[in-house]
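dumping this here before i forget
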Amino acid sequence: VQLQASGGGLVQSGGSLRLSCTASGFTLDYYNIGWFRQAPGKEREGVSCISNSGGDTYYADSVKGRFTISRDNAKRTVYLQMNNLKPEDTAVYYCAGKIGSWKIYSTEVSQAKIYNYWGQGTQVTVSS
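structure:
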């Protein structure tokens, strides 16, 4: 089971980036996927999550209205569209996968501890 995050980069404040989390070697259909980020000296934070069906989503308050999570199971990819980026969004972004019913984990989806599989991070830097 391998997840690969990509799409990070350097962008000016107010700009946009789209991150991708692609699965290799397995089907993504059964996995709930979360995006997390970690800035230097800070704890890993749950940013956005999507259920295996795509019918349920979670957004941290800090990104609501600016970030949109989506998935294309046929392409084995989950996307995080990030608009109106701010310097405080600067961090390494990780995607993670969790098999199981979203309804069972709905109160914990933003917590890194429940996720079984992690991709490597992709750096997002937002300049002011």
